[in-house]
């Protein structure tokens, strides 16, 4: 990863050209204090139709057809929320911040919210308190009536401005494509006499800084500084540092003509350190610089921003190393090339497909490559030559679909992330679960580093050595989660002692180290985590361990109460329920925490509550046993009852597209031999909840969880982590192919009689009637094997408009479940 050959520092510096993209325009009357920003960099344009043109000329014959030569051109980063310009998995995600309440990416497309600055670090659509958003830069074309240094409104509330226009089309969509916002830019209006720039050291998204400091070099204008900031979703704090350099674009600005530190609303000329101006009780501080304007009247100033979690010196070194020559174009081109190569590994044939779906696909895929972020060289906690990844926010969100998608096309990054996770386990005792800027954050459910490592190992164990992933250390890391209870299981690991003795998490046992909540959802998630460990044990030939963890993965049955019925619907029988240590159940209404909960509970993370469930209801968690759906069908009374229950969940609105535990429900009809219904429900889910508008996501993106989910649905696939099977439906494209740089294969799924996609997701010639792999009839219409990816197969689908298709008639037509023979 990274510009050039350096994987470690490429993510650490952002190049900001204060020249071309953010247009500052002083409005009419002199009494207006602030200029108005017309923020070109913030538009939601998807352009570059060249891909489509090429595509329609291409014939879908070779399995390695390139249909979208520049896949990055199909990305709209403003889908849902947004995150900032970056390279794949880059640490620096430069982006615009607004004063919108509750916008976790810093940015809000709604033009009623003010711009407060352009900051360097962001996450991708997380919950918790607004994370990161550190080190904002902000330009002033004029300051006050007298346009003096001292009149500049340096605080966030003083300087904030409305965007000049709602976000609209760009004059030059290519160079302003949001992917480049890491090199986004500003333009001072012609005739600006005192172009000024604020560097804000203290205001992160939570305004949480303490222990801040800033120094500036009056000769060069270099600003260095840092502070301690609060983590977003946990009790820890972290230090971050920055180093900002300026340069005229196409001319020499020389030394700043005015400079000074500011504290609150007081910029003090000719000071060079926060210590000269800083009052302890004023929480906002930074630098203000004035540059000489360009003699031709159009001022362009480039800013290069380095960031580090170690020191300001290292922030400078990162910037100098990554962007030595301030070359805006080169930086932009290198970042763009990286994105196009990465996204282009998945090719779709757009013929007869609504371009909206192509854009939605690549925009979703793009968001799966933001988190976790490569902080290699920036780990403040210990030194190691292993990669260091951070921004796991949280594995609970991403293990289901993000990492399985990465397994299909980006195993090299996947391997580096796995190495980083193992390294964290070796230093901290347990795998990371939820983490931001080195801070351990709250655990939502199980220890879901386990399915992530297992997903990698089950698919890539033959390549583990070549990818420098140590199998023994990987297995030891899994065992630590499974067997060792940490002192604080709210921040890492699991509540393993009681899990091992009772086989479920009881509702009435209070143990030090974590909240006595989420007992049922943790039970079903611990069970799945143990399943994934059993899968790794099997690969390693550890037969006894494989059996042991497969056995433990059946523990979900310990919280199944066969006698609980749905209120008013007595034929829906059997639910996951909280249970006491003595074995008795504590009845909980199956609607608890659903949209129809009579008590309007929410089941979010909250120490005050004692709900057995997390971000889901008994009715949705009673569907969550991905590794043994056959057993679930049996518990729920057989195929017909199971289908009836699934239909009830959708028809009554219990399916919750915003929360991950619901994600696989649309595909569950597969296991009852009704894959057409899965195709239907999954397509209705896309139609209802996903599009390329700024609100085109249900809830947050959750670090790419939603992006990867949508990408799988559009690809006509759904993964089961840590297995070699992938559920199959029909792609939205006549052909989709996955190029894998480690397996050196391209795997293609082609619908031989593709006939478009119904816009509302209902009906259409989209149901899989039969499947051939490499020319031979395949055993199932419901799943494919990982072999198809290692072999580089051509998978041909015959589609029909008959929703009543089945998985096939053979013995091995249904997708596997543990209790019907497992995953061998
Ligand atoms: C890492 O190594 C550097 C250089 O030897 C040292 O200054 C620093 O304290 C070390 N960091 C940690 C966290 O041990
Ligand atoms: C369900 O009811 C049956 C019959 O009354 C009883 O034998 C069984 O123990 C009950 N199961 C649970 C979990 O309460
Ligand atoms: C039993 O469940 C209810 C919610 O249905 C909860 O309020 C109560 O605290 C639980 N009882 C115990 C002892 O945990
Ligand atoms: C996009 O999806 C959201 C829900 O996620 C929905 O509210 C909105 O109406 C959709 N917009 C369009 C243009 O379909
Ligand atoms: C894939 O190709 C690369 C470069 O050609 C080669 O080094 C590598 O060994 C190949 N891997 C496999 C699994 O064939
Ligand atoms: C979906 O669209 C098709 C035709 O485009 C129409 O026949 C059908 O009634 C629609 N279904 C729903 C649920 O809106
Ligand atoms: C993959 O190739 C192997 C060996 O050629 C073959 O036995 C297997 O059936 C293939 N699998 C698929 C899914 O095509
Ligand atoms: C699918 O099956 C249902 C009931 O079994 C039937 O009513 C319907 O007509 C069938 N649809 C088609 C297209 O055959």
Automatic annotation (TrEMBL):
Residue ranges of domain Glycosyl hydrolase family 92 N-terminal in the record: 75-149, 184-308
GO biological process, one term: glycoprotein catabolic process
Pfam family, one: Glyco_hydro_92N
Record InterPro entries: 6-hairpin_glycosidase_sf, GH-type_carb-bd, GH92_a_mannosidase_put, GH92_N, Glyco_hydro_92, PNGase
GO MF term set: carbohydrate binding; peptide-N4-(N-acetyl-beta-glucosaminyl)asparagine amidase activity
GO cellular component: cytosol; nucleus
Superkingdom of origin organism: Eukaryota
Residue ranges of every copy of the Glycosyl hydrolase family domain listed in the record: 314-800
UniProt protein name: Glycoside hydrolase family 92 protein
């Amino acid at each position: 990863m990274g510009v050039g050959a350096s994987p470690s520092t490429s993510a650490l510096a952002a190049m900001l050209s204060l020249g071309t993209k953010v247009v500052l325009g002083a409005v009419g009357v002199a009494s207006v204090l602030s200029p108005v920003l017309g923020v070109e960099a913030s538009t939601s344009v998807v352009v570059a139709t060249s891909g489509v043109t090429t595509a329609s000329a291409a014939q879908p014959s070779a399995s390695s057809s390139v249909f979208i030569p520049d896949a990055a051109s199909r990305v709209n980063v403003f889908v849902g929320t947004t995150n900032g310009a970056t390279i794949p998995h880059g640490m620096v995600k430069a982006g615009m911040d607004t004063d919108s309440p509750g916008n976790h990416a810093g940015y809000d497309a709604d033009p009623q919210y003010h711009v407060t600055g352009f900051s360097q670090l962001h996450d991708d659509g997380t919950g918790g308190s607004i994370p990161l958003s550190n080190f904002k830069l902000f330009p002033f074309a004029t300051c006050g009536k007298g346009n003096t240094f001292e009149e500049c409104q340096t605080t966030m509330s003083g300087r904030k401005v409305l965007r000049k226009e709602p976000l609209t089309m760009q004059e030059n969509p290519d160079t302003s494509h949001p992917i480049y916002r890491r090199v986004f830019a500003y333009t001072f209006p012609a005739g600006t006499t005192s172009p000024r720039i604020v560097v804000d050291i203290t205001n992160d998204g939570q305004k949480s800084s303490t222990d801040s400091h800033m120094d500036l070099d009056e000769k060069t204008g270099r600003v260095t500084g840092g502070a301690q900031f609060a983590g977003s979703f946990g009790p820890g704090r972290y230090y971050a540092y920055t180093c900002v350099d300026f340069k005229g674009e196409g001319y020499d600005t020389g030394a700043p003509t005015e400079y000074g530190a500011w504290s609150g609303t007081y910029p003090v000329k000719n000071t060079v350190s926060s210590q000269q101006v800083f009052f302890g009780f004023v929480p906002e501080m930074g630098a203000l610089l004035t540059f000489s304007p360009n003699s031709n009247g159009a001022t362009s100033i480039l800013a290069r921003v380095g960031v580090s979690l170690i020191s300001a010196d290292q922030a400078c070194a990162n910037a100098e190393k990554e962007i030595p020559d301030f070359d805006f174009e080169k930086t932009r081109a290198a970042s763009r090339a990286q994105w196009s190569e990465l996204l282009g590994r998945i090719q779709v044939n757009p013929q007869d497909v609504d371009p909206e779906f192509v854009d939605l696909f690549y925009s979703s895929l793009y968001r799966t490559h933001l988190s976790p972020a490569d902080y290699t060289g920036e780990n403040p906690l210990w030194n190691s030559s292993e990669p260091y990844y951070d921004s796991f926010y949280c594995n609970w969100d991403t293990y289901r679909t993000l990492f399985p998608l990465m397994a299909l096309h980006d195993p090299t990054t996947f391997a580096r992330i796995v190495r980083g996770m193992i390294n964290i386990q070796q230093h901290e005792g347990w795998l990371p679960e939820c983490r931001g800027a080195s801070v351990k954050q709250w655990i939502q459910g199980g220890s879901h580093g386990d399915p992530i490592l297992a997903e990698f190992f089950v698919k890539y164990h033959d390549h583990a050595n070549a990818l420098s992933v140590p199998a023994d250390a990987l297995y030891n890391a899994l065992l630590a989660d499974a067997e060792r209870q940490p002192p604080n299981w709210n921040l890492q690991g699991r509540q393993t002692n009681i899990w091992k003795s009772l086989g479920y998490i009881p509702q009435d046992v209070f143990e030090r180290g974590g909240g006595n909540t989420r007992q049922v959802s943790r039970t079903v998630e611990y069970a799945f985590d143990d399943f994934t460990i059993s899968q790794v044990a099997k690969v390693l030939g550890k037969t006894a361990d494989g059996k042991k963890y497969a056995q433990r993965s059946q523990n979900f049955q310990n919280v199944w109460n066969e006698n609980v019925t749905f209120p008013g619907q007595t034929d829906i029988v059997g639910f996951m329920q909280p249970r006491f240590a003595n074995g008795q159940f504590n009845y909980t209404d199956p609607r608890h925490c659903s949209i129809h909960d009579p008590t309007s509970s929410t089941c979010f993370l909250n120490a005050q509550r004692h709900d057995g469930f997390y971000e889901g209801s008994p009715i949705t968690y009673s569907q969550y046993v991905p590794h043994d759906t056959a057993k679930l069908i049996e518990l729920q009374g057989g195929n017909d009852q199971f289908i009836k229950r699934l239909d009830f969940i959708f028809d009554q609105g219990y399916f919750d597209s915003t929360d991950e535990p619901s994600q696989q429900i649309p595909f569950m009809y597969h296991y009852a031999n009704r894959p057409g219904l899965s195709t239907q429900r999954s397509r209705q889910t896309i139609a209802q909840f996903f599009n390329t508008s700024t609100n085109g996501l249900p809830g947050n993106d959750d670090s790419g969880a939603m992006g990867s989910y949508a990408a799988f649905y559009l690809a006509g696939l759904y993964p089961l982590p840590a297995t070699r099977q992938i559920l199959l439906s029909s792609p939205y494209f006549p052909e989709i192919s996955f190029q894998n740089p480690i397996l050196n294969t391209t795997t293609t799924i082609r619908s031989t009689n593709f006939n478009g996609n119904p816009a509302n997701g209902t009906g259409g010639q989209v149901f899989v009637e039969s499947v051939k792999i490499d020319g031979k009839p395949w055993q199932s219409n419901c799943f494919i094997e990982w072999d198809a990816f290692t072999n580089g197969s051509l998978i041909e689908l015959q589609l029909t408009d008959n929703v009543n298709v089945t998985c096939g008639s053979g013995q091995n037509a249904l997708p596997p479940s543990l209790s019907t023979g497992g995953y061998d």
